[in-house]
Amino acid sequence: MNRLAEILDEAALTGRAVPRLTDRAALDVPAAYEVQRAVIERRRERGETLIGVKMGFTSRAKMVQMGVDDVIWGLLTDAMLVESHLDTSGLIHPRVEPEIAFLLDRPVRNPADAAAAVGAVAVGYEVLDSRYENFSFTLEDVIADNASACGFGLGPWHSPRDVGNIGLLLEVDGRPVASGSSAAILGDPVRSLTAAARLAHAAGIELQPGWVVLAGAATAAVPLPAGAHVRVSGAGLGHVEVTTR
Amino acid sequence: MRSSVTVSSSVTEEQETARRAAAARLLEAHASGRPCEPVRDLVGDVESAYAVQSLLTERWLAEGRRPVGRKIGLTSRAVQRQLGVDSPDFGVLFADMAVPDGEEIPAGAVLQPRAEAEVALVLERDLTHERHTVADVIRATAFALPAIEVVGSRVRDWDITLADTVADNASAGVYVLGTRPVALGDVDLRLAGMVVERRGEQVSTGVGAACLGHPLHAAVWLADTLARLGSPLRAGDTVLTGALGPVVPVAPGDVLEARIDGLGDVRAAFAPEETEERA
């Protein structure tokens, strides 16, 4: 596990893609999550702290494409939070997608408790950067690779509200390149939050006050070029911007 | 946005005969409920295709059908790319195509039905200028409604080009309007989320911006195009502005619910099975 985690961690640190782990080792889903946690452990040893979780495969289309019937999750650290600028030169093949984010204001002790623990909602974006060659992976590979998590940004927090069907628009250099509804996230991003609580509960991790939950993407991810200005807007939630170099 | 529709110049007798043959083929499919072969072999360019559509309209008007507005099609970049076009198209809405919210749509009412959620605009002023602005359209709009359009192709297996669908009244079938009017000032149509659900599962999602960037942009295109063709939009007209997300194939018995954020919800209920042959 540690060797596999080292391969993925090195790939992230050096910006060099690696072949799929499943090409060299037999991995099942529980083992893949063990690799994921070992990757995060290496980040923590470097001083990073956990600040939330991200959900993946939250659209029906993606589930069908991957041949799975459940969501996956990854862990977010403080080093992944993007403020207003992102240097993409150290990344492999970054992509960006519009997200709905929840901020928890109390611990989530069980999945039934999740929605009530939401203190604020925001529009956000996630930068994905699979450590695998050609962004190509099996379910187990992508779980081990922390669900391709790389970075994320958040718009202004708003008081909790119905975010079940809000329009999201992703613009690059002022031109719309992707748009969709938050309903693409499991029908309602709150379901993704509940799933996060379930997966965390099963893994023995308690979602903490102050943690961010990235509920999933409203559109397919689009390539994130260098030297671009990206803005993600959400109806009633304002927008979040990032400039890449 | 440029329109690809121009006013007809001169037409040869041969072209006229071909257009009438195309119209006859589509009218026969409509009347018999049996899809026909494509008409592109008879139609040619877009201008001819609209001429065929006009022949259909003339026939249907002569049968006493009441025109109540227009539908705009091909408003998504994805669909435009698929058909290799860079412009939307339009068709005529008749009163008998309107189905009340949630009431059953009889089997066979629409050939090869597919559903899509749209923003409907209901006008209170004519739009007769050669070129319109967004302000003109806002001023002319009494209110917006959520809508489900059930498109259907009279052409077998939806084997259509731009010419086929334009000739075929833009593949118009039936439509359902929501019942709570919303003023344009009370809704952000650009960022309005859209979801269509079947038995609680989302089968299509989208957003206002997916319709030519904004549903009102589509309406401006339609107003300009119709004014140029000499049959402008009029007060009272309903305009279906175009799909906000991917089209949904429908099966007998399906009940689809569409929700557009800020506009409300609307349902299309399809009869369980084919119960009678169309007259």
Automatic annotation (TrEMBL), chain A:
This is 2-oxo-3-hexenedioate decarboxylase. One of its GO terms (molecular function) is 4-oxalocrotonate decarboxylase activity. The keyword ATP-binding does not apply. Its EC number is 4.1.1.77. Coiled coil: none annotated. GO terms for cellular component: cytoplasm. Residues 94-243 form the Fumarylacetoacetase-like C-terminal domain. It comes from Streptosporangium sandarakinum. It is an enzyme of class 4 (lyase). It comes from the Bacteria. Keywords: Lyase.
